[in-house]
User: Fold Peptidoglycan-recognition protein from Ceratitis capitata.
Amino acid sequence: MSTRNKVITTLWLLSTISALTRNIGIHAAPTECKYMESSIISRSAWGAHPPKDRFTFDGPAPFVIIHHSYKPDVALSPSCCRKSMLEIQNLHQKERGWSDIGYTFAICGDGNVYEGRGFNVVAAHAPLYNNRSIGLLLIGDFTDKLPPQSMMDMAKDFIRYSVECGYLRKDYILYGHRQVRNGTDCPGDAFYAEIKKWPHWQEDVKDIA
Assistant:
């Protein structure tokens, strides 16, 4: 094969891969974007049940929606965190009839980030935003108390990581769950007052479900 034909073939393969990636809604992170991988616990590592269905959307997402679990409360060990994730998934799948755990990712008290549905996967945490946001849960009841500082620091680090890896827009907007869903106090009064101080939090919401 001539050099010219090799170049044409290579360009065709690259364009095909790019098109396929866009069609399935998956964003490929830069190869250098690896620094948080050791802190992200995969679905298989926490024993997640398989989803009943799975749909993707094109990223990067323009929103981050912050949640608290209310129940279960803060878990501090890896084993307790895995148990909490399964408890939440069972609630969502078996009792509410959802296809999977509702959130995109969760922060637990053991200092790790737990994969929920994952990046660019349509979630079930906030109507009108499920196909254009990262639903970030902090496990615990933060009505009258703040999450441990380590959890809040990890949440901020993870949001920054999501931007740097191209899963979240640089000009993203951050909301508390109560801002985009009527009838909920999530992410708790104490925590909601705190996230108002976080970068990119915005008070005005145009479309509340």
Remarks:
- Residues 123 and 130 are 5 Å apart (CA to CA).
